[in-house]
Design brief:
This protein has a single domain, classed as Aldolase class I (TIM Barrel), CATH 3.20.20.70. By secondary structure, the chain is an alpha/beta fold. The radius of gyration is 20 Å and the shape is globular. Helix content is 43%, strand content 12%. The protein starts with a helix and ends with a strand. The strands form three sheets. The chain has a seven-stranded mixed β-sheet with strand order 3-4-6-7-8-9-11. It has a three-stranded antiparallel β-sheet with strand order 1-2-5. Strands 10-12 form a two-stranded antiparallel ribbon.
């Protein structure tokens, strides 16, 4: 049965927040932990053996350690022009470092300092019903990390220990890269999930403390159920009034995950009753609050994508120039969901997995072609030929 995102958020709130702390993922035995620790080790709560913090090298080509580990060609930003650095990063799968191009203190030669966010992950998603096959089919977060339950693999995380742990991690990363002859810093504090907006009050208070330290910028992720959830929580007194507006006063960017381009597409992808109207309303709410928002689409129906872009460009100026399309891979959590679904259907799991891989790859390739054609016709530029932070997206 499809999950109601607002009702699920209300239920998860009771599990994800208590006594000033949030329930966060301990990455120790997770796929995300194993993958990201190939470059930089997982990071503990200071003084403990609990590891709820990780980094992710967004653009591996400009990172000296990640490019070696993942066998990509290293682009040494210390020897490149600003324009060449920008071109390399713009074409990458994750262009996050360029989001901060117009932030005070940003330097293209120091872009690697914005390439390695210090990340914590809220341990529950309101698209996820708590079962082993719940949530978005393609989500790389394992179900145990997304179900919101108090059990092994989770930890309660406070604000002061988060900030203290980031400073300790910062020194560790600086030392690791310095040994290899490279300058590195951690500038980004990222709250991921799960769905961070369920604990938006905690994030606001986190930034009230983080802002007392100079030089940090931030990122929060959202599945764009925000408008309904935040409105409900403000009405009930769970959040203080104008929580989004207050958080937008801090240097925090928003990664907005767009899960489809029409009702059938989104509800099939996420196994939720979330709607396109709800996503558009949430996007409008973020922009009205004053956030700088970066939409990321996943598994769009390529036959409906152009009409979606046309509609969204009518509602939001420069939407199509801002939005990226994310490629999908079948990770082990995805495989587990598909195996369980195949068993439910009485099908061969290998066939369903192969079919899904091909469909996602085809949707991505066709989707990129649709976007490129649309942008060339409408704006005279190709896909990823414009730096997203150079074009302002705003509601019309």
């Amino acid at each position: 049965m499809a999950t109601d995102p607002v009702e699920r958020a209300i239920a998860l709130r009771k599990k994800l927040f208590s006594d000033g702390k949030i329930l966060a993922v301990d990455f120790t035995d997770t796929l995300q932990g194993r993958d990201t620790s190939r470059v930089v080790e997982l990071m503990p709560i200071v003084g403990t053996q609990t590891y709820p913090f990780r980094t992710k090298v967004n653009v591996k080509e400009i990172d000296p350690l990640a490019s070696k580990e993942y066998k990509t060609t290293f682009a040494d930003t210390t020897q490149m022009s600003d324009a060449d650095i920008e071109a390399v990063v713009r074409k990458a799968e994750f262009d996050f470092p360029l989001w901060y191009k117009h932030s005070p203190g940003f330097s293209m030669r120091k872009i690697t300092h914005y390439n390695l966010p210090f990340t914590l992950q809220v341990a529950g998603c309101n698209f996820h019903d708590g079962t082993e096959r719940g949530g978005c089919w393609y989500c790389f977060v394992d179900d145990q990390s997304n179900d919101g339950e108090h059990k092994p693999g989770k930890t309660h995380l406070g604000i002061d220990e988060t900030i203290a742990s980031m400073f300790a991690a910062r020194e560790m990363v600086r030392a690791q890269y310095r040994e290899s002859g490279h300058d590195m810093d951690l500038r980004i504090l990222r709250t991921s999930g799960g769905e961070p907006t369920i604990v938006l009050d905690w994030i606001l208070n986190l930034w009230r403390e983080a802002s007392k330290r100079n030089g940090f910028v931030g990122q929060i992720d959202s599945n764009l159920s925000t408008a309904d959830v935040v409105e409900r929580f403000e009405q009930e007194g769970i959040f203080e009034q104008h929580t989004l507006e207050k958080l937008a006063e801090f240097p925090v960017k928003v990664l907005a995950a767009i899960k489809g381009v029409n009702e059938q597409n989104i509800q099939t992808n996420v196994q939720s009753t979330s709607t396109m109207e709800a996503q558009a309303r949430s996007l409008r709410r973020f922009l009205a609050a004053g956030f700088d928002v970066y939409p990321q689409r996943y598994n769009p129906d390529p036959t409906a994508l152009r009409a979606y872009l046309e509609r969204m460009d009518q509602e939001f100026e420069n939407f199509s120039l801002r939005a990226h399309l994310g490629p999908l891979k079948v990770y082990s959590p995805t495989t587990k969901r598909l195996i369980l679904e195949a068993e439910r259907r009485g099908e061969d799991p290998r066939q369903l997995i192969d079919k899904t891989k091909k469909q996602w790859a085809d949707n991505y390739a066709r989707g990129c072609a649709v976007i490129d054609t649309y942008l060339r016709e409408r704006f005279g530029v190709g896909y990823k030929e414009v730096t997203r932070s150079d074009v302002e997206m705003k509601a019309r």
